[in-house]
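Next comes this protein.

***
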Amino acid sequence: MSPTIKRFTMACLSLALLTVEVRAGVITFVGEDLQPTANPTIRTNSDAAAAAFNLAASGLGSVSTITFEAAPLGNINNLAVATGVSINGLDVNGNPQTIRNTSNFPSYPSVDGSNTTSGGSRFVEMQGGTLVFTFTQPTQFFGAYLTGVQTNFFADSVSFNDGTSQSITLAGAGTSSNVGETAFVGFTDAGKSITSVTITASVPGSGFDDIGVDDVEYQVSSVPEPSSLVMCGVAGLTIGCYTGARRRRKMVAR
């Protein structure tokens, strides 16, 4: 394969793994990076999707990030992870999901779950099942990094209700039993009041996926004119929005 064709092929693969979708009032931001090695270090598409999400979300309100660095290690039981935000969930065996600082599969975290916070170590480990985020103050947006995604075992999804059931399912193109991916999944939903978001890694009678969840972003306050989201959302449909978006400094939620 010539260098020119190879570069073109890689560019097409990159674009295929980074998408913005507009569906009515919901705008979704998804970036997926295959991790062919033991250490999940490739985040080109996922970071670009996160930057585009942050640009759009900041038009709706202040963006805060939950890094789980202050969360206690061990089982999750209605755990408060930020002011007005709690998490709960059961794994595929009916046991509580957990906060960990090492992968459940330490020799190959790229097919399981890992931390994505710079300088951090803690994250939520999901062994299948669900993880539910509940917000005392409704949010108009939500985003998170998912690690160790392998959709050949189960197609992981993020779902919520804005008056209508909504779901974002990861394609996981190229993942297999020994190749996982790191993904950023986010959405904005201007004018809606989202009180809970569920990440699903298995359903009864299906397969299940072991994944990590980290750097969760949500709204802590609103601004008067959410119409700016529409402009950012349209701009996000172009490559320029991805390459030009400068990711804002995250405020760690405590």
